[in-house]
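Input for the complex:
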Amino acid sequence: MSDDFNVVGKSERRVDAVKLALGKPAFVDDIELPGMLHAKILHSPHAHARIVNIDASRARQLPGVAAVLTYRDVKRIPFATAGQGHPEPSPYDTVMLDNKVRYVGDRVAVVAAESLEVARQALQLIDVEYEILPAIFDPQQAMQPGAPIIHDEPDCSGVYDPQRNLIAHLHAEVGNVAQGFAQADHILEREYRTHYVQQASIEPHIAITYLDEDDRLIIRTSTQVPFHVRRIVARVLDIPVRRIRVIKPRIGGGFGGKQEILIEDLCGALTLLTRRPVRLEYTRAEELTAARTRHPQIIRLKTGVTREGRLTAIEMNVLENGGAYGTHSLTVMSVTGSRSLSLYRCPNIRFEANAVYTNLPVAGAFRGYGAPQGFFALESHMDELAELIGMDPIEFRKRNVVKQGDETPIAEVLGEGREGYKQIIRSYGLDECIERGMEAIGWKEKRQQAASSQQGPGVRRGVGVALALQASGIPGVDMGAASIKMNEDGSFNLLVGATDIGTGADTVLAQIAAEELSVPVERIIMYSSDTDFTPFDPGAYASSTTYISGGAVKKAAVQVKQQILEVASRLLEDNIENLRCEAGRVMSVSGQSVSYEEICLSALYQRDQFQIMAVASHMSYDSPPPFAATFAEVEVDTETGVVRVVKIVSAIDCGIPVNPQAAEGQIEGAVTQALGFALTEDMPHDGQGRMLNTDFKTYRIFTAMDMPEIIPILVKTYEPTGPFGAKAIAEIPINGPAPAIANAIANAVGVRLRDLPFTPEKVWRALHQR
Amino acid sequence: MRIELTINHQTKSFEIRPNLLLMELLRQQRCYSVKHGCETGDCGACAALVNGKLVNTCIMLAAQADGADIITLEAIGAPERLDPLQAAFVDTGAIQCGYCTPAMILAAKELLDRNSHPTEADVRDALAGVLCRCTGYVKPVEAVLRAAQQR
Ligand code: FES
Ligand code: FES
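Predicted:
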């Protein structure tokens, strides 16, 4: 199969970079609407309480206040905030405004006023009488009999067992685990813990809503999922889908945080009520208390292994904290199992998982979506197993890891929200990822040095490895579409519902179209996305854009190219079989040629006129996994417990990288978020459910100064089911760093940390408890 | 109260409420490159050059800037004539979502204006006040070093 492309595989300039470099007004907030109101949300100060009485009359009387909404003013329509396909696999346990609050930060009321200042004042004039209910913060206790029931409302649906605060339960098995353990020479059982972290896109959630001249509700919002926003908001506001138009301008980062309906419903409701434009934006404090987070998980792994280092059985048990609402809890933990347990050939696997409600912030989608948790546990565990049987960790992994042509049976059983489809690994570059990664980190020398320098205090160095895989879209669930239209100058409008949230997706999709149509990228005019004009797309999640939406772009381009050839065949009086497209022209074998301009002009104005254009949809029952080998080199200060990461090597097989520079950017960004996950980011609360770090001073994401050296390596393979051989890249690089760092710490100082993040205190304690 | 500001080389006087933030005023003046990501002075997205210094305009009152000379990204470069820094950001792939980009470029400009041969550490130090959640800072640092070479 050829990977000799003109545009694909080249680091083309981003199609949107110039406007962003100039600071042009491209984002949600960068417009001016006359008469715009400013909205603010009143959040609950209590973790669990019933609203016995709420009186907004004083707030309503404040000059400049246009509207106040409480649960008394809105229809009670249960829905899921998760921006997923219909029907959502998430429970319908949320209403726009409720008479019960379930975490500190839950919605109580919303105000729209002439200015933000007045809106803020008005919030203070809303009198709320709460009946405080016992709250529960520990996911283990939440399932115990007698625990307070967080969702006791009768109209919530899709919850596995509300009486036990059980959002969802999963059980999957392949082979015979008991038999597998019986065949093992060693059995190891360990528990790993992951914590709350926040997506922290620099642009907060923001929506601006208004009514157009046809009285339709326009929602201009920073979302990853415009079509899901339209469908879900229509339901919540009880108006038909046709009355809503969602516009997605430029998005200032998402990472899964903007895969939810967090503010669009309230903002839209205020516009419907006041008939005026309304702007609603989260502050950073709201982002850190009332937006979504990664799901904390407690993962128990029990594994059987033979003396020769073969896995005989794996049992994974997950307890997941969903926080106060169910949203993505089920699918996130299904991904925890289906991704991590697909990495190794093991004939006997059992996966069991429970997601529970607590009175803490709501966990949702965050890059990797369950996989970083699963791989932290699994890849820490693999090192522990290797140590147990006295084998080199890489040798041990190589002995067990999946290979080309393998099936991943657990992914088929588990699926994502519903049963999955059989997956066969067709493109496979993991061996090369390992080889090149080892080389780049200097594995052999450094591993030995660390082992020989372990005694005594001081700063110790070590290296660690972790492998991972991910998927490319949700097989059999999501469908993306694209439309391409030709213009007189031989350029093309490419309209997609897909959302570039900073990933470079617009550029990658333009490259796919340009490649198929044999034109330079400048001839592709991108537009994404507007529910009125662009065809459907599930949105930016599950690493699906290049693979799924890109598949649609390619199909549409194939059809457009066919039309171009048909017109050319008429103009050149030659058969299509004798024609080919090259650099914006159609050439015939006889040496004649005609330009795209002439072709389009002829089609539009001269004979048998028609618009050269096509729409195509694409879905897939395949979801080829990209593969990763991550290597970390760390320094551990044995006196203070401070871990400094010196270097991260992230070697990724994403098939053919459509835009290598953008792919590297995905790796570098994901690694940085993973460093925060491993070392500095955490969301502790005060015991009453109030989050303690609600600003960027105390919620520490990495700055330019904190960064280690990052070496991204792209290992090329050709994925036959992907557009021009491509598979996904966005999420996979976030899976490896945390376990690689845990393994490097163990290599440096001989202590095993199983509880993220690795703060100096935890490391110090572990060193002293040895 | 009344203040006078020079914004992107144009001097104007403004009647403002005393607690108006400089960030709000600049955005009202359609300097939309001044972004907001925290409003507590921690993310740097709202940066502008005030009398040549990089300032987080979300924690500065407009009144405090009375008489100041303010430069935002709107005054730097044009579509056909990008500033070398802008060109370097575009070419190295230093722009992902682009939300932090205006502040990054201004921070880099402030650095290069006082130090035309920065080391990588200098660049990291200068960019440390601007948080980016997309790029991992790898390509932005590369962009600034590349622009420094070309200046
Ligand atoms: S918005 Fe000003 S520093 Fe963050
Ligand atoms: S590019 Fe998105 S925050 Fe920097």
